[in-house]
Structure prediction request, 307 residues.
Amino acid sequence: MRHLIDIMDFSTEELQQLVDTANDIITQPAKYSELCRGKKLATLFFEPSTRTRLSFEAAMYELGGNVIGFSEANSSSAAKGESVADTAKTISCYADIIAMRHPKEGAPLVASANATIPVINAGDGGHNHPTQTLADLLTIYREKGRFDHLTIGLCGDLKFGRTVHSLIAAMSRYEGVKFVLISPEELKLPSYVKKEVLKARNIPYTQTTDLEAAMPELDILYMTRVQRERFFNEEDYLRLKDSYILTMDKLANAKRDLAILHPLPRVNEISVAIDADPRACYFKQVLNGKYMRMALILKLLKEAGTI
Ligand code: NCD
Prediction:
């Protein structure tokens, strides 16, 4: 059974196939509108979500399928003490595929070991978020036409930001990619990501606290929210939350074809004035996420022999 728990579960060839399928869905949606007729996606969300859950639901509906699920832990038997393993076994009796978000790192992996249907990690704690990476990849490909030879700035909460960890892993497999890691001291990229991904693969990267100094060399700027829910105390959050606020004047030295991405939700990190700038790609990224989730559901259900 194929699952998507970590973005590295898929080869670069498979990621390219997903991008190609998503692009085909964009041009010929009618071709895809009945492919999941009679099939059910279960969305098991133990943590808040707007885009990820609703884009999974929209994706399944646009494939002609149905959706069941819950959007908060309190409305499921987790509130009674049920284990993730038992929940996964149970849902396998009702649905054809699971998308799970959980505050505990590794919970979707445990689910995949116990389910008899494909499991998709829709975000596990401060660890990984591979389907956001799928949205990021389609956005990068549509904006830049390639994945190689790009300088990617990641800015904000690189410690708890799970989307950053998955995106770095995915992009580290392409030639000529460089990373500029922009964060406050306390929110630097975890050393395990540096060691297991960047150093292990000999990927060039620099670390800085200065967004404006880094700006001129960037092809992509990936802004992130400071992850309040993962802090141990509110004071630290309040001190760090506005570390970076992207405003028009900070873009003065940026490349003219810079692509600005953000997984959203945005709090203060990007001034609303930037939304109208052609370099702002974050709402396109939202739409791209739906197409990539459609491509992903199709791939996993085909490999499982369900469709
Ligand atoms: C991200 C997440 O859940 O990690 N949101 C999303 O799925 N687009 C980013 C965030 O919450 O900051």
About this structure: The domain at 7-128+286-304 is CATH 3.40.50.1370 (Rossmann fold).
